[in-house]
Amino acid sequence: MVRTDYDIVELISAKAIAARVESLAREIDAYFAGTDKLIVVGLLRGSFVFIADLARELETPVEIDFLEASSYGDSTTSSREVRILKDLTSEIAGHDVLVVEDIVDTGHTLAHVLKVLSARGPRRLEVCALLDKPSRREVDIKARFIGFEIPDEFVVGYGIDYAQRNRNLPYIGCVRFHDD
Ligand code: IMP
Ligand code: MG
Fold first, then answer.
1. pLDDT, tens digit, 9 for 90 and up, residues 144-178
2. pLDDT reading at 79 higher than 60
3. What is the whole-number distance in angstroms between the Cα of residue 33 and the centre of ligand 1?
4. What is the number of the ligand 1 atom nearest to the C-alpha of 108?
5. Which end of the chain is more exposed for a tag (fewer CB within 10 A), N or C?
6. pLDDT (tens digit per residue) in 16-58
7. What is the pTM of this model?
8. What gap in Å lies between CA 121 and CA 142, rounded to an integer?
9. Domain ranges within the chain, ordered by starting residue
10. Is the CB of 97 under 6 A from ligand 1?
């Protein structure tokens, strides 16, 4: 059921996000120093704001592409089925690839995407996640570049949604339902 009776409590300000995005870009530039081309793969739709800001801070030459994966929660088990809904346009074989994700939660989405992409033979395949919720992890996976570690809270803003709402908030906030 989609609810609209909630408030959003700021967790990470727009200013704090901008500062962290800049420092992440420096870490990524240092890691991929000397590469001829870094293919930056945004996972749709949640990473669209983050990838736009991050890409503009990077000095490494980049190619931008997008991939959309869909995860279906199974109410009876903790296993998840992930499908690729929109595949890459770029060829990644032999290239450096950075997957950009909004949040790593259970890790199922990322694990599936990395399995699919690594089968194509990229030179290096790394992940940059804006947010990490390590307490929710069900799959042993960790992004090399992480913006912020957050507690087990449902968040929205800066590209991240609740039922497709609130992606356009400039900051990241926690959803607080009125009867919680
Ligand atoms: P995972 O497969 O459980 O790691 O799922 C990660 C995906 O779930 C993220 O890319 C988000 O799209 C979504 N997600 C996880 N936590 C949140 C949240 O707090 N707010 C909104 N979407 C979330
Ligand atoms: Mg997502």
1. 999 999 999 999 999 999 999 999 999 999 999 99
2. no
3. 30
4. 2
5. N
6. 999 999 999 999 999 999 999 999 999 999 999 999 999 999 9
7. 0.95
8. 20
9. 15-150
10. no
Q: Which CATH number fits domain 15-150: 1.10.10.10, 3.40.50.2020, 3.30.70.360, 3.40.630.30?
A: 3.40.50.2020
Residue 102 Cβ contacting ligand 1 at under 6 Å: yes
d(CA 24, CA 128): 9
Rounded CA separation 64/51 (Å): 9
Structure confidence at residue 72 (pLDDT): 61
Q: What is the Cα–Cα distance from 81 to 120, expressed in whole angstroms?
A: 21
Residue 25's closest CA among 36, 11, 38?
A: 38
- CB-ligand 1 contact for 67 (6 Å cutoff): no
The CA-atom distances, in angstroms, between 7 and each of 36, 157, 171 are: 46, 12, 14
Mutate to test the pocket of ligand 1, among 99, 102, 131 (most ligand atoms within 8 A of CB): 102
Calpha distance 3→112 (Å, rounded)? 30
Q: Which ligand is nearest to the CA of 133?
A: 1
- Is residue 91 predicted with pLDDT exceeding 90? yes
Atom of ligand 1 nearest to the CA of 153: 19
Residues 159 and 47: beta-carbon distance below 8 Å = yes
pLDDT score recorded for residue 76 = 44
